[in-house]
Amino acid sequence: VLEGVVRNIQSISNAPAQYKTAFRHSLGGIGWLRVLTEYSRNDSFDLDIKVEAIPNRWSVLIDPHANESDYSDANYCFISERITREEFRKRYPKGIAGELGRDSSVEMYWGDERTITVSEYFRREPIKRTLILLSSGETVYEDEVKDVLDELLAQGITVVRKRTINTYAIVWSKITANSILEKEREFPTTTIPIVPVLGREVNIRGKKKYQGLITQAKDPQRMLNYWQSAATERISLAPKAPYIAEVGAVQGRIEWSTANTKNWSILTYNKGFQPPRREAPPSMPVAEMNMAQNMQQSIQSSIGIYDASIGKAGNETSGRAILARQSEADSGTFEFTDNLANAMRRIGILLVEMIPKVYDTERILRIKGEDGSGDFVEINKVIKDEQTGKEVVIHDLALGKYDVTVTTGSSYATKRIETADSMLQFMQAVPQAAQVAADLVAENMDFNNSEAIAGRLKKMLPPNLLSPEEQEEIAKNTPKQEAPPPSPEQIKAQSDMEMKQLDMQMKQSEMEFQLRMEEIKLQTAELNLRAKEVEKGSKIREENEMQDEERKEEAKERMAKEIAEKIKGQTMGE
Prior knowledge:
Elements: H1 2-12, H2 15-26, E1 30-39, E2 47-53, E3 60-62, E4 76-84, H3 85-91, H4 107-110, E5 115-134, E6 139-141, H5 142-145, H6 149-154, E7 159-175, E8 180-187, E9 194-198, E10 200-204, E11 207-211, H7 218-237, E12 243-244, E13 277-278, H8 286-303, H9 319-358, E14 363-368, E15 374-379, E16 381-384, E17 391-394, H10 412-429, H11 434-444, H12 450-459, H13 468-477, H14 488-573
Antiparallel strand pairs: 1-2, 1-9, 3-4, 4-5, 5-6, 5-7, 7-8, 10-11, 12-13, 14-15, 16-17
Helix pairs in contact: 2-9, 7-8, 10-11, 11-12
């Protein structure tokens, strides 16, 4: 919320234009920015914070004894305006212009017979404050809670520790040399809200001096002006190229009197004379032009900006040489942009310090995101916690301590364009990436409805490529569409289609049944054939077994006969 408030303050202040004004002044030595408060509307007491550049940089007189580079330790500052005495009486009818006297040493600054100087006067006054630590863990200033210490004690909150600190209060008033025009009031910061945008700082004998970008180029510029003027003078004083002819060669020839102003196709001369000839034109003053060119190079060397740095063709031929020249120019002028970044950081520190003090009531603030989108938030709103019964302040900008960092570079819009261009180049190198990253390219495109196109492309991606948050967002943004009731023609067509589908299913079922019956017949025939083959094999095996038995019986009988004959033979031998 705090970052969004800071961006919104810069937006309503048109801060880029204010920074440019101060930066342009710094190129001449020094520029100034300021932070101020003003009422948000004519019918409201709410204050807004604004950032402005001081248009007249010579109107600022600040404490010269400040040691910090951003003058944050300055003890006083004047911002003056010179107005006529008539205008002074209109603005401040009760103000005293006064007479300073002819011999006054301050008359030149504060006014003369016709004008008078009106100044905003800031001064920093040292003060002492007591810091207390409460038993609840909070650290506050005693002067801020002294009226409610009894109530805190009744709630059981006591003071644990105290210590005295040295700080500052900034007092603002509007004055002339003789009177205070607007009463003093305290400004909500501890430093004077005037920020310098410095040029090039040099220290000469202990004194700070600020130089602009062109300070060291003044003498080469004077020399360039001199040699250009000298060359112009020499050329302008040289005689025009005349015709040279013998006496009588062009006598009576009227066209020769206008030969330098008209385009004659033929110029004739009298017979018996040499033809007229034109004298050579005056030559360019080479020495003067060479000196002028040298001075131009001296100017570039003085300011550190060369032709290659601003896109012009120079002596550099290779890309490396051009980049080296551009880098050299960046190095020679970096301190100006660096000083602007330091001034912007100082502005941020002042804003962070002022926001809790200026926006200290319950109100609605507009905040801005980095991409320029806006939103509204309630700050300092007191609500009751239903579980604990305690009152809680939401978006209390006074809580916490914050620091400020500033980065210089491309704006958000420029980054989007650069990102889209880089993505397109990547997709040309890797075409497959276009199928899964087209929505990211559309999001970074800078044309109308780019976000809508990105949303549609994201819906076409497979769910596994999306995060749970993206899936939830798509489901939330996708409306559920109810189909309209069908017409009688659609109902009849649908019935006819269903009947045809049913008829086709019945025919298909019948064909499948017949095919199944044929399959069963074929399987039955195969089974019968196998049964016959098995039966036949069984008979063959039985016949073989019977034949084997008969052969075995015959073998037994033969063996018995052989044994009987052997026994008979042995018996007879014995």
